[in-house]
């Protein structure tokens, strides 16, 4: 069995850097979660209540992503990285997670921005990674903190 890093990175690219560093450091496979409809700067302007990120989060909307990990069952540990939105993963991450069987997989979520803090991120992620052996989450600034 082996490990995988999956990540969604928004505008700043911090999550992509941490995910890439983690995969390289630990020799893990890596997969980027990309929404079918890419986000624009205006879409990510959370200060605007009508911005796409807010409409998705508060409307609990599904956000489909591109691509698929065909050999997902080969992994026993998955690191999931994302910028934290309102104390949880962005909806595109949740939609991605729902598409896989997480039975027996250890999930380590890492968030790279903390305007709203890590909160109950692990608890909020659990319904999307049904069957996972365990789920934890932490706020990080670099791969060395994971």
Molecular structure report:
With 146 residues, the protein is α/β, with parallel strands linked by helices. The chain contains four helices and five strands. Strands 2-1-3-4-5 form a five-stranded parallel sheet. It is globular, with a radius of gyration of 14 Å. The two termini are 20 Å apart. The relative contact order is 0.20.
Q: What portion of the residues fall into strands of 2 or more residues? A: 15-25%
CATH class call: Alpha Beta
Order of SSEs: EHEHEHEHE
The name of the CATH superfamily reads Flavodoxin domain
Low-confidence segments, given as residue ranges, are none
SSE-based structural type? alpha/beta
Average pLDDT rating: 92
The strand line-up of the biggest sheet is: 2-1-3-4-5
The biggest sheet, with number of strands, parallel, antiparallel or mixed sense and barrel status, is:
5 strands, parallel
- Quantity of strands, as a count: 5
Rounded to an integer in angstroms, the radius of gyration calculated over CA atoms is 14 Å
Number of helices: 4
Q: Which word captures the global form?
A: globular
> What is the straight-line distance between the termini?
20 Å
